[in-house]
Amino acid sequence: MTSLICTLQDHRDDVNWCAFSGNLFATCSGDKTLRIYNTRDFSELPFSPLTGHGYGVHCCCFSACGQFLASCSTDATTMVWSTVTGEIEAVLEHPGRSPVRICALSPDSAHLVSGASDGTLALWDFPSKQLRRTGAVSDTTMVACSFSPCSQVFMTGSTYGDLRLWDLDMNQLHAEKNAHDLGVTCCTFAPSILSGGQVVQFRLASCGQDSLLKIWTINKFISGGYKMQLLHTLTGQSAPVLSCAYSSDGQLLVSGSVDKTITVYDATNAVLLYTLNQHERYVTACCFSPTSPLIATGSMDKTVNIWRLEDGCSDRGGGKSLPDGSDLTSSEERTSAGRSKLLVGDWSEGDVSAWLVEEGLEGLVDKFRANNIDGTELLSLTKETLASELHIESVGLRSKLLRKVEELKSDSVCSGIPDEFLCPITRELMREPVIAADGYSYEREAIDSWINTKNRSSPMTNLPLLTTLLTPNHTLKMAIGRWKTNH
């Protein structure tokens, strides 16, 4: 059995990655921050959130001892943080200054790899934070990377759809072309090594835009050669699979998808155990705790869910579909979590009633229901309508209600912003939107800065911009103005 034990709702943009260490849990987001929690109760550490990246953070990973956290960003850097103080230990600037999409630390914490939008790879000596080697795959974006459990080789995956095995001298040991049609999204080595006779064997899971999760065997022969072979193809999800992760014993495999589901498999036998349904948008990240039976999943709905595998992992029947909720999360909590992701103007009458109860105004529920007050009506309430139409006689009660409504209006400015109103570079509400040569709209100051430092490449496509001419997007600016006035 699997139960949802808590939902973290601290990020203000898409959650892009999550990672466990022994006693810590980290998340990163398009809101440019990382957050660190204590795994005992998932309370946020005093120095969290970590702020230092100039743009969205794509990936994060802990060192083996959990003392350091590495993160990479569109700002073309990989940062190393102390998990004791929250301070930045090092800023590693990627060669070529291209947006860094993926980073991975070796299990022995000796090396760190970062992969960028221009297809380049950088291999860093982690103790000294010095660049050791560089490599590249042309005409693609690096989006996936994982070290083998022996720390001597690593696998990368790209939007071209290939998986490539590298050694620490940045030599390509094997290339699996078209591993995933339309592109790889994630890859991860199983933590165990199988050996026998003349062969050492690794297991690797990968997922991609083809909606498939695949399990591969990678054989290393005593001669030094490598052979990669597809072992299982898992089809439990109906849309692109964006993330995958092995449990610490290699027995389970979890994946997250654009179809908003999380699947948990028996990795050895390729059997679907559970399908979890709780997120409201794409599931972009997933990971297992190394020390307890917990799974974390992150989503574009800005939340992170923590799931507990009850009784370890002994229950391995056919695929089970859990309801949109769990034994450890009350229906009221689920309703609140779902409602918080909506603009107040989109609330239903039921959402308004639930909000009244939460605010200690349950005595008004019947009046509001009788008058069909939904989110739009709630925001338009005045002292006059409360007195004359809803017949709320108490001046103090009317004042309390209106004060709560004003708080809602204030909060809604800071959350639930339509994605098209956010600058793709800064992920902040645009004030002076302009259209660049790639056809996308950006905040003028952000795209100006980008063009001046990124050699005229598009932040969205990484292709050269044919011109640096920027055209004001008056229509979008007016739409943003209307939205701000109404919210």
Describe the structure.
This protein is an alpha+beta fold and 487 residues long. The chain is built from 8 helices and 34 strands. The strands form 8 sheets. Strands 2, 3, 4, 5 and 6 form a 5-stranded antiparallel sheet that branches. Strands 19, 20, 21, 22 and 23 form a 5-stranded antiparallel sheet that branches. A hairpin with a 4-residue loop joins strand 4 (33-38) and strand 5. It is globular and about 90 Å long. The model is unreliable at 312-335 and 337-341 (pLDDT under 50).
Question: In brief, what are we looking at here?
Answer:
Mean pLDDT is 87; it is low at 312-335 and 337-341. This protein has eight helices and 34 strands.
Roughly what percent helix?
10-25%
Return the average pLDDT rounded to an integer: 87
- Number of helix segments? 8
Shape: globular
Rounded Rg: 24 Å
Q: Please mark out the parts with pLDDT under 50 across 5 or more consecutive residues, or reply none.
A: 312-335, 337-341
Features:
5-stranded antiparallel β-sheet; 34 strands; alpha+beta
Strand-helix topology:
Blueprint: E1 2-8, E2 15-20, E3 24-29, E4 33-38, E5 43-44, E6 50-51, E7 57-62, E8 68-73, E9 77-82, E10 88-93, E11 100-105, E12 111-116, E13 120-125, E14 130-136, E15 142-147, E16 153-158, E17 163-167, E18 172-176, E19 184-189, E20 194-196, E21 199-208, E22 213-221, E23 226-234, E24 241-246, E25 252-257, E26 261-266, E27 271-277, E28 283-288, E29 294-299, E30 304-309, E31 320-321, H1 331-340, H2 349-358, H3 365-370, H4 375-379, H5 383-388, H6 395-413, E32 433-435, E33 441-443, H7 444-453, E34 471-472, H8 474-486
Parallel strand pairs: 27-31
Antiparallel strand pairs: 1-30, 2-3, 3-4, 4-5, 4-6, 7-8, 8-9, 9-10, 11-12, 12-13, 13-14, 15-16, 16-17, 17-18, 19-21, 20-21, 21-22, 22-23, 24-25, 25-26, 26-27, 28-29, 29-30, 32-33, 32-34
